[in-house]
Structure formats: structure tokens, C-alpha cells
Specification:
25% of the residues lie in helices and 15% in strands. By secondary structure, the chain is α+β, with helices and mostly antiparallel strands. β10 and β11 form a beta hairpin. The longest helix is centred in the C-terminal third of the chain and has 17 residues.
Length: 483
């Protein structure tokens, strides 16, 4: 997408700001330095400007609430200095005096999307599916097909509630990073200081023996799935391990030492418990107070309220004894009350809510005056952390790693989600965040292009071929239209 500079986009000139002495002095100083520009581009280090911030605090017009990429500066300013204070002043000066330059002409063309999606959906046996994308320029698009409740044949909407399973992890990760920002936690601090039982959980050896761990588990280990915890449903050794009746621990044994390598498992559940211990709130209460509540994500809950039970979608599965035909297995209302809140897989959410969460990330951590993360923390979500935590010779502990640099084994992971590597089958740019949920829900978020994509179904087993193809199709449609 390109921005074209014309006389009309440069007007109207903000003459009124010349009345502000401080503003005029700042701008005059920048002009005096001979700063020039030749265009701008979005970059992975996303930057946003908001009313009341910076040297022009209190006079920024409302259009500055939308996210803006860094300028690409040529001349007296080295591009490496773009994040310096004087450059931010320059950007503010240009925006203030030429607001039309940033007119929102960068929308994704969606003509024909519904017809094409409906044709693809009708060729599958997936009973219901929800599709949507959101952009850093304020565009939100959704389409839904099929019923919310299969047996009732009601119409699915963007507010219907899905079991999002492991898409919970991204939200829990943001929650715990809020505590890091407040100085209540540190990424490389041993979490046993708050969760004393975690250090005592043994490691399951290759011959079935239990051995004590020696490497302290840190929050960074938990957020990057390098703590050594696995999932019994995905790991054969762990699935075959029989927990003794007197097992004293709150989890299965780990499968490897912290920092050995990436291993998918219950790490984010432990991060959720850390939020509870440090905040003094259960995870539901914390999210409602500090994240989902402030963002207006009122269809996102661990324990779905009675008033929203009729919005919960059907959960189904392919019956192998009936030729793979879909079967409904979970009618409303949902089952037993939630007593433990799984930060790794326990949330229910809607298409609209999850798009709002991801759009907030695209906006640099703030939307409609609600900030959930600082901009620099959001940027760190797209930096590959595995070189920082997986023990290799000459490991670089700095945070300067490139978000699109794959790890040695061809996989990258940030502080909240996996990161796409070059040559992926989805057409995503390297460094894009992505993940999915067990019941075939999917998302990706790309700060390079400023586009997030979400697709939701609620069927089993995981990685259903037809559901996955629907997701691939929709993501390809969005990303091709975004070029």
C-alpha cells in the first residue's frame, strides 16, 4: 500500500498552531537543523502518537490516535537515530502541520470476499465458521457462516462465543507482561520465588526415572515454552506416565531442563498462576480489571456468565465410525463451574473480541484511550526470544535479536506467540506472530503490514484439514489484497 503526496493531502495547513509559542519554537528549531524527509514506511518497531504526549502534549489532534510507522529519513538524520527524541519532535511537527498527509486511504479491498468465502465454506463439512481481520488503520471486517448452535440453526455472529483453547496464551502472556512493566516481576528472575512448588517438580528421564531439576525456571522460560513442561496429550512419554496417588505436585513431571529447547506444554498455565500470586486476584478477576474489561471484551471469559450462555457455539467432532461426519457433543449451557483458571487454554471468546485484542497490539498497545502495554513491550512480542534462553555456545543475551531471524532449528518464538520464518506456507511476512487453538481457531498478527487475521470454528480434532484450509484461504485473500 502506498501513500501519495499531493497538494490536497498536504492541506489544510494548521495555521492555528502557530499561535502556540512552545510549538512554534520546537518546529522552528527542527527546521533550523535542516531536517528533510523523502517518505515514510512502517517498520517492525511500531510507534504511535497519542493526544497529550510528547512536547506538544495536550494539543495533538484526534487523528494522532491512529498508529503511524516510523519515517524513513534521508539527509542529516541517520536512520538508526529514528527513535531518538529529536526525531520524535520532527514527526510531531509534520503531523501537526499537515494532518491530511496521513489520510486513511490504506484499506483492504474486500469486494467479493463474502461470495468467495461462502463458496469455499460450502465445499466443506465444517458446520459453522467465523472470519475476520483488523488493521492498524482502523478497518475491521467480519463474515460468519452457519449456525451458532447446530441443533438450533440460529445464525452465527461475530459476538458468538468460541472455546479458544491455546489462543488464551497470548492474552495471559500480555497480562503477566503488565506486571513486568510495573516492576513487580522480572523476565529472568526465578519464578520459584513466587511459586515455590515449581522447582520441586522432577524431570521424567528417558527410562522413566524421575530426577530433580537443577536450572531455575524463569518467566522468560515460561513465556517461550522452554521451561521443560509438556502436554500429556501431545507427548507419548508423558501420556504413558502414571501419576502416583500421592503425587504432591500441581503438574506432570517436566520432560527436560529449563533452557534445553522449545517444548509445547503447560508453561503459560504457570504464568497465569504467577499473575494470581503477584496480583492477589484470580486470573478471571485480573483480566476483567486490567485487560479484557478495559478493552470492552465482554464476550471473553473463563466462566461464561449465565446471561451469555446462549451465545456459546456448538463444539463438535468428526465421527470416524460415521465416515467423518460431524457430531455435536457440547450443548448449552457449559458444564461445571470453573475453579482453576487455565492461563494456557481456558478462555472462551468471540471473533469481535479477539480482533479487538489484536488490533490493540497493532496500535502499539493502546486503543480508544485504553493502554494495556507500552509500545516497547509490544515490540518485544515480535522479537525471537529462543536465542536468548536456549543454551547454545556464545548465546546473545541482548534484546537486539531480529524478530525475523529463525532459530537454529527453523522455529522462532516471542514472548507471547510463535514468529513466522521465511518461506512459510501462509504467505505471512517473517516476524509475524501466530498461533491457534485446539478446537481449530487460528490467528496471525503482522506489525509489518499492520494486519491481524482471525478464523474460528469449534470442531475436533486439532488441525482439521478442512478448517485449516479455510483459514489458509482467508489469510491468503487478506494478504494478497493488502499488497
Amino acid at each position: 500500500m502506498q501513500i501519495r503526496m499531493t497538494i490536497s493531502t498536504l492541506m489544510p495547513f494548521r495555521w492555528d498552531l502557530l499561535k502556540n509559542k512552545k510549538s512554534f519554537q520546537n518546529i522552528a528549531g527542527l527546521i533550523k537543523r535542516g531536517v528533510g524527509f523523502a517518505g515514510f514506511r512502517r517498520d517492525a518497531a511500531y510507534h504511535t502518537l497519542y493526544k497529550g504526549r510528547g512536547p506538544f502534549g495536550g494539543i495533538l489532534p484526534g487523528f494522532c490516535k491512529r498508529p503511524l510507522g516510523y519515517f524513513c529519513i534521508f539527509g542529516l538524520i541517520n536512520p538508526s537515530a529514528m527513535i531518538q527524541k529529536q526525531f520524535k519532535h520532527f514527526v510531531l511537527a509534520v503531523i501537526l502541520f499537515f494532518p491530511g498527509f496521513f489520510a486513511a486511504s490504506q484499506s483492504i479491498e474486500t469486494a467479493g470476499f463474502r461470495r468467495e468465502l461462502e463458496e469455499c465454506w460450502k465445499q466443506t463439512e465444517v458446520p459453522a465458521a467465523a472470519f475476520g481481520f483488523a488493521t492498524a488503520h482502523g478497518q475491521v471486517y467480519t463474515e460468519t457462516f452457519g449456525p451458532g448452535q447446530w441443533s438450533a440453526q440460529d445464525s452465527l455472529t461475530g459476538d458468538h462465543i468460541f472455546r479458544i483453547a491455546s489462543m488464551t496464551k497470548a492474552i495471559t502472556s500480555v497480562a503477566v507482561l503488565q506486571l513486568v512493566e510495573q516492576g513487580l516481576l522480572e523476565l529472568d528472575q526465578p519464578v520459584e520465588n513466587y511459586l515455590p512448588g515449581i522447582r520441586k517438580i522432577p524431570i521424567l528421564g528417558s527410562s522413566g526415572e524421575l530426577v530433580p531439576g537443577t536450572v531455575p525456571i524463569t518467566l522468560r522460560h515460561l513465556l517461550t515454552h522452554t521451561s521443560g513442561f509438556g502436554y500429556a496429550i501431545f507427548d507419548r512419554r508423558l501420556g504413558q506416565f502414571q501419576l502416583p496417588d500421592n503425587w504432591p505436585h500441581k503438574d506432570h513431571p517436566r520432560l527436560q531442563e529449563a533452557g534445553t529447547g522449545w517444548l509445547y506444554g503447560t508453561s503459560t498455565d504457570w504464568a497465569g498462576r504467577l499473575v494470581e500470586v503477584v496480583s492477589g486476584l484470580n486470573l478471571e478477576e485480573y483480566l476483567r480489571k486490567h485487560l479484557t474489561g478495559p478493552l470492552g471484551m465482554d464476550h471473553t471469559w473463563f466462566q461464561v456468565p449465565d446471561s451469555l450462555q446462549d451465545m456459546v457455539v456448538t463444539l463438535g467432532f468428526r465421527d470416524p465410525q460415521a465416515g467423518g461426519a460431524m457430531r455435536e457433543v457440547a450443548p448449552r449451557p457449559l458444564g461445571t463451574p470453573v475453579s482453576e483458571f487455565s492461563g494456557g487454554a481456558g478462555l472462551h471468546s468471540s471473533l469481535n473480541d479477539y480482533l479487538r485484542f489484536l488490533q490493540c497490539i497493532l496500535y502499539g498497545g493502546s486503543i480508544d484511550g485504553v493502554r494495556i502495554l507500552r509500545e516497547e513491550t509490544v515490540a518485544s512480542l515480535f522479537v525471537d526470544q529462543l536465542p536468548l534462553v536456549v543454551r547454545r555456545p556464545a548465546t546473545d543475551r541482548s534484546l537486539g535479536a531480529q524478530a525475523d531471524a529463525p532459530t537454529a532449528d527453523g522455529f522462532a518464538h516471542g514472548l507471547s506467540w510463535a514468529l513466522e520464518i521465511p518461506g512459510n506456507e501462509y504467505g505471512r511476512r517473517p516476524g509475524s506472530g501466530y498461533w491457534s487453538g485446539y478446537f481449530n481457531t487460528f490467528f496471525s498478527v503482522d506489525i509489518h503490514t499492520g494486519v491481524a487475521v482471525v478464523v474460528m470454528t469449534n470442531i475436533m480434532p486439532f488441525s482439521d484439514p478442512e478448517a485449516t484450509e479455510l483459514y489458509k484461504k482467508f489469510e491468503a485473500m487478506v494478504r494478497l489484497s493488502d499488497k
